[in-house]
Amino acid sequence: MIEQLEQQLDSFDATEREQALGLLAEMVESGKIELPETNDFSNLHCHTFFSYNAYGYSPSKFAWLARKAGLAVVGTVDFDVLDALDEFRQACKLLGLKGSSGLETRVYVPEFATRVINSPGEPGISYHMGVGFPSSQVPESQRGFLGSLKEMAQKRNRDLMGRVNEYLRPVELDYERDIMALTPAGNATERHMCLAYARKAVEVFGDGDALAEYWTKKLGGDAALLGLPEGRDLLNMIRAKTMKRGGVGYVRPGEGSFPQMADTNAFILAAGGMPVHTWLDGTSDGEQDIDELLDVATSTGAVAINVIPDRNYTPGEQDVKVKNLYHVIEVAQKRDLVIVGGTEMNSPGQKFVDDFDSQELAPLKGVFLRGARIVYAHSVLQQQCGLGYTSEWAQREFAGPAERNDFFEELGRSMQPDQETNLAGLTENATPEEVLEQANT
Questions:
Q1: How far apart are CA 363 and CA 272, in angstroms?
Q2: Where do the domains of the chain lie, and which CATH numbers do they carry?
Q3: What span, in angstroms and rounded, lies between the C-alpha atoms of 413 and 125?
Q4: Could you report the per-residue pLDDT of 47-86, keeping only the tens digit for each?
Q5: Beta strand pairing status for 73-79 and 98-108?
Q6: 238-276: b or e for each residue (b if 16 or more CB lie within 10 Å)?
Q7: Burial class of residue 155, CB neighbours in 10 A (0-12, 13-18, 19+)
Q8: Torsions phi, psi for 50 (to 5 deg)
Q9: Which of 129, 234, 374, 396 is deepest in the core (most CB within 10 A)?
Q10: Beta strands 42-46; 73-79: pairing state
Q11: Does this model's pTM top 0.85?
């Protein structure tokens, strides 16, 4: 029954997900399921099926698995939408889990127009995030901007599909029938498209030699080695050969293809979130000028940096990736930036949580836990009374970001999920000490 309910958590039907999680919570309450004590691991960057999760996880499923794993703080991040926020908040509340939600998108950075940042092969384009949003219902003045993120992404996808269809004939997709059917709320991504092409190819050629011959012809190499019919290597190869730079369907983004970083940060701040610059691995021209890049990001409102630890080290090797990882952490700490991280889970094979007990990541476990606690505390304070990390209250009450970080970390550490509503009704006249006292009443 537990396994069946866990599978139901990934249903596209929201009512079914809610019922399944409620029954699992009842089994915990009755002692039929025993959950572990909270550990000191965190994952603040998990995509759900509202953009693309490689394992099909809904917000409720991620919350449930995170609580089963004893994670201290967790967060969802979806491309271009806040669709996971309300469900994830309710799931965290039910399970006694510290959580937050945000979004990821791509932005244009005019100051780096000639330099690649973190979107490979695309000068001036940067992946970018907002975390700790207090509500999925952004202020009316910001709804147009939020809606435009999804609209722009879907238009890019439809145009891309048209070009890829020409190359992959007789394997051709219909956007509504073949791609949108893979999403619960109409927010398809390139990864959905890759999966749809893999499945359409099986419809056309079957799953035998003809399928291998087709993909070998279209992708090059021996496709039989790619894990047919829809293995990770095949999906990644479809994306690389047809959708990314150098692929048959790729068109270099033009001016207006993505919003500017400054405008995106303004939206995130107005919606009550925390703007976050994202870092890849330190090897691009742009990221080699990390101080200049962070100057640009922070000048328009960024208060945090996102790092994906797992892809930035090779277990047992002290290589350039590890060196770059520690360097960017050092740079961020000197600037008192909030440091957040996670595993993404939007590509097959990515871990549920980083191995913070590994030799390479163990020294950084506290760094990422600190950042996760800060984001959690911000999201709760902002949602309950508007006194979050980026509020006028926070800027007035603390001498600088170092003091602000210390306060929000302490609040995120000491406050438990069942105490969140204690903060409702606080005003800008409250002192930090009163906030901490009220939270822990």
A1: 32
A2: 1-34 (no CATH), 35-138+271-439 (3.20.20.140), 150-242 (no CATH)
A3: 35
A4: 999 999 999 999 999 999 999 999 999 999 999 999 999 9
A5: parallel
A6: bbebbbbeebebbeebeeeebbbbbebbbbbbebbbbbb
A7: exposed
A8: -80, -10
A9: 374
A10: parallel
A11: yes
